[in-house]
Write a structure and sequence with these properties.
Layout lengths: L6 H6 L43 H14 L3 E5 L2 H9 L7 E5 L4 H14 L2 E5 L4 H7 L4 E5 L11 H7 L3 E5 L4 H4 L9 E5 L13 E5 L5 H13 L5 H11 L2 H20 L4 E5 L9 H7 L7 E6 L3 H9 L5 E2 L9 E4 H4 L9 E5 L5 H13 L1
Parallel strand pairs: 2-3, 2-4, 4-5, 5-6, 10-11
Antiparallel strand pairs: 1-7, 6-7, 8-9, 9-12, 11-12
Helix pairs in contact: 2-9, 3-4, 10-14
Length: 374
Amino acid sequence: MSSSDKPATIAAHAAGAIDLQSGGVVPSLQPSTTFLRDADYDLLRDDNTYARDNSDNVRQAERVLQALEAAAETLLFPSGMAAIAAVFRTLSNDAQVIIQSGIYWGTTAWVRDFCKRRGIGLHEVDADDLPQACAAIKADLVFIETPSNPWLKTVDIAGIRAITDGLLVVDGTAATPVLTQAIGHGADIAMHSATKAINGHSDVLAGVLSTSNPDTAAWQAICADRKMAGAVLGPFEAWLLTRAMRTLPLRVERMSENAMALATVLYAHPRIEDVYYPGLPHHPGHAVAQRQMTGGFGSLLSVLVAGGREEALSVIGKFNLFLRATSLGGVESLVEHRHTIEPDTGIPENLIRVSVGIEHIDDLLADWMQALDG
């Protein structure tokens, strides 16, 4: 493998993963939780002490993500929320935090509770108002999500970097490192729920943090917290994640193409009030997305059905191919009535969140047309 390899090559070769012991062209699975010492009680491998700290399979998956993110160091966690929690636990009780509003509700709810318990100053700011807030508030941490879930708002990472001296953390779950390398745009830490498109098969829970500078106090605290709190991914899940990432760029390319085609058709349909998708020219964040996303605009979009709750649920109930389930980024296409999941968060009752998979676009379009017109 070369440092100049493209993402598709990095992923297909799993950043050079082979099994030298067997000669296998894929890494082996080693599920052991503990590791041998010799007669003098020295470790046979200094880097393998106990699985709560690390393992060969976890390190292998981290190497792939580190290369895809063009990061200096990467850490895996057992979920995206575990990764976010590790970042916020580095804050002191007198810290000031700016967090983008209208992002994944699980993040917002946890951060609100955490900051309240710790006495941390929390400022929730709309994506459009982040530049002014970052200029006015001396924040210790700025947390943004771009594109956001489910509003699909885009934030200019480099623009925020130029304004704030705080730790800049970017949740790029909807983009993946294939479409946006947040660190390259100025983020201190890039975060993803690897459960979503990075794994892409709806069968692994995982989260990931990558940094541009592993020598910072914040990153060292994150490393120590993961080890001592036991917030590490298991070897089998890491092995599955490595296996899935071999096709990540290919999947992202197909899902982005499908999402763009679907968004374009739906936006022109008389029963659709609006489509939130950064690839559409009318989207307020389209210009930022064009600068910041390379190779597509992702698989996530939100559709506003003309009418209200009943009209949206009527459409959702007619799908044959799109599965009614909560998640995003998988190979299978999903639809979700977000207001049912988050009834008190300002989500419009006519909003359908759509995660577009890798199926043939003709079949996806046909399923939407029969649901809207049938």
